[in-house]
Amino acid sequence: MVSERGIQVDPAKVEAVMNWQEPKTPTEIRSFLGLAHYYRRFIENFSRIAAPLTSLTRKNVKFNWGPKQQESFDILKQKLNNAPVLTLPDGMEEFVVYCDASHTGMGCVLMQKGKVFAYASRQLKVHEKNYTTHDLELGAVVFALKLWRHYLYGIKFVIYSDHKSLQHLFTQKDLNMRQRRWMETLNDYDCEIRYHPGKANVVADALSRKEGVKPNEKLGVTEEQLSYDKDGILRLNGRIWVPVYGGLRDVILQKAHSSKYSVHPGADKMYQDLKANFWWIGLKKSTATYVAKCLTCAQVKAEHQKPSGLLQQPELPEWKWEMVTMDFITKLPKTRKGNDTIWVIVDRLTKSAHFLPIKETYSSDMLAQLYIDKIVSLHGVPVSIISDRDTRYTSHFWRSFQQSLGSRLNFSTAYHPQTDGQSKRTIQTLEDMLRACVIDLGGSWDNHLPLVEFSYNNSYHTSIKAAPFEALYGRKCRTPVCWAEVGDVQMTGPKIIFETTDKIVQIRDRLKAARDRQKSYADLKRKPFNFEVGDKVLLKVSPWKGVMRFGKKGKLSPRYIGPFEIIERVGSVAYKLNLPEELSSIHNVFHICNLKKCFADESLVIPHTDVHVDESLKFVEKPVSIKDRQVKKLRSKYIPIVKVKGDARRGPEYTWEVESTMKEKYPHLFQ
């Protein structure tokens, strides 16, 4: 009907539709669709809504009226009853066409003066389901032009699409045969294609985005395999088919993964549990995706994959004691001289080392004086020094001291001791030798340290295929156990200089071969992986308490915290993170092996204010007060213990600790 308001449906026809009884045969469905189809221009998404009914009118399809058909029948009646009033065409105004396509159908809207003139939609044909996204979107445009040719031919109008590349269609050079055929149709019209984001294209894009419109999902099975039970539930071999709409799949996945009866199973276990009762296309993929996005699983589950990041090696030195590494061995038994620490300094080329006994309380200026006396006086000033981030190395005094000498400080990546692997391996050997000396010879360890250093520097080193002493001085060292005398008579004058230089060249070649061999072996157990700036990652932390055994969690604390945003890439395998104020005491550059991609969309389960980690990335809970005292008898000893209250955010937690240990660590609690 045409009135001054516009074009609207005939009320008599609407009444006939509303009184239409539920179809019992395909013929009755065709009759209903014939009447409804007459007003399809008033119904947005008509083909999608009518799809369940249309499917029953095909040949060789068994008539089975189910919940989907009933819902489609009711929606069409409701849409016709509430059909909008369409605007009348005005020849003076420009038409606007909105087009969109999805994997199920095409939809378009013809508008003028901001008001809808007509809706149109249809399902995809069998061959069209194989089209690329570009061809589908272009096909929707051609569908609209052919349908409304009598309105659009000979006038200028604008086409809006949410496929951005279509706006460059008329300048595109490489076209397939289908696109060339469609271009001939487009050339008949005076039109301009403009980009309109899908979420802004609220009318035509409803075909693929509108809620309440159920997609015609491909089930991937024959109809003989499907059956309805007495409750009208579609099943496949006894398993319930879960539709894609309504959020039912998300509810089932959540219950199967996060409930107290499931407790976060892995993807494979969860899939096996689900497939026994439920079924939908892509169930296994949906399960794996859901588990991958679970923040709780990401925080607490151990990694069973190769660590990320291939081995990165520092450059080879050109000369002896040009590049060195240094580290401390601390917490050793205190000797009569008061020493409880060893300062280990190793040359990266010859592998020769100095082991200097010191006290842990040595200040930076005392270390600087010892460094001048024992290292610089013997070997000169190194070009570069590799060390960890010990406060004595990162102090302003030590930095200024090395800068004045002209040495470059290279600090290892935080919480990645493998950066200074040479010092760590030397320390391991040194500790083994000291243990043997103390067991066999007795006495204080610092009395044996000079001989241990002598033995280490005269032992064969695999990577350089010589002893460090021989690599350093160009000749073997004479030891108390000499199988062949080594004296000056063997090598004198220019010959020893030539031999020393030649040995350095050989040592560098051997080191390079050893490095290449080590890298090839190490990379077999690693995987290449990169993050991008802006990615969200989780940070690996130690699940053990760093200071006390406080709290009920202990070892059950999360393995990862976060997520945090990557703000910069540092080198090949390190990244700088945007850490919150609560973690400001931690150096914010981390090796990639300590990071894990965060796929979760939800916010943090554990707030940053509830996380307490020390500078070693270990969980810490500080004591608040002493609540009780007792004396515990252990064999023949009586040990005083105290009951300590912790500062847990989720309520007070108490534990019994040894009183002497508590007094040493937290003397303020006993004042």
Automatic annotation (TrEMBL):
Keywords: Aspartyl protease, DNA integration, DNA recombination, DNA-binding, DNA-directed DNA polymerase, Endonuclease, Hydrolase, Magnesium, Metal-binding, Nuclease, Nucleotidyltransferase, Protease, RNA-directed DNA polymerase, Transferase. Residues 313-476 form the Integrase catalytic domain. One of its GO terms (molecular function) is DNA-directed DNA polymerase activity. This is Nucleotidyltransferase, Ribonuclease H. InterPro entries: DNA/RNA_pol_sf, Integrase_cat-core, Integrase_H2C2, Retrovirus_Pol_polyprotein, Rev_trsase/Diguanyl_cyclase, RNaseH-like_sf, RNaseH_sf, RT_RNaseH. Its EC number is 2.7.7.-, 3.1.26.4. GO terms for biological process: DNA integration; DNA recombination; proteolysis. It comes from the Eukaryota.
